[in-house]
Amino acid sequence: MVHYLSHQDYGGTAFYRHKATGFEAITPDRHRAFLDRLEQEFAENGEPEAGYIAGDTPLFAQISSVEHAYNRAVIYAGNLLHCSMTRNDVHHPDDAEKGRLTIAAFMLAR
I need a surface site. Which of 4, 29, 42, 59 has the fewest CB within 10 A? Predict the structure, then answer.
């Protein structure tokens, strides 16, 4: 779960599919295959630049997104491929009351 607590919109959350494997979620039985394929892609094409993913990339296709809204909580399976939709050119204030403030939580139903 991610809970947006900022009044200012610093970006929501996007969900992705790994193009080469077709994986949208990384389960224990997919983990090794996913990492091996990423390693192969990095060896062939180099690693992507550091930063947040924005839309489709050579490795990933954006399949869904949830926009930021103050006090919105987005609940999703923790093994889904996801990334903050934060723009890489945005300055984030050091003051939590003015910057991007979220709560990320992992929950387990029993």
Answer: 29
